[in-house]
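can u do me a favor
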């Protein structure tokens, strides 16, 4: 069982909720770090969402 299989099991059809959690976490992070890092936080969240979308499409 690989890491992607574990992620699929953890997400288990709740991709929307996970993505909402990522958005909330990003807002908290942006409040804590200087504004110059906002684009990096957004980029990381977008990449994580792409992975989640890929996992959701495989099912």
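np, heres the sequence
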């Amino acid at each position: 069982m690989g890491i992607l299989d574990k992620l699929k099991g953890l997400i288990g059809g709740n991709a929307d909720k996970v993505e909402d959690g990522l958005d909330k976490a990003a807002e908290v992070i942006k409040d804590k770090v200087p504004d110059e890092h906002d684009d990096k936080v957004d980029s990381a969240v977008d990449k994580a969402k792409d992975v989640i979308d890929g996992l959701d499409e495989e099912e």
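Residues 5 and 55 are 9 Å apart (CA to CA). hope that helps!!
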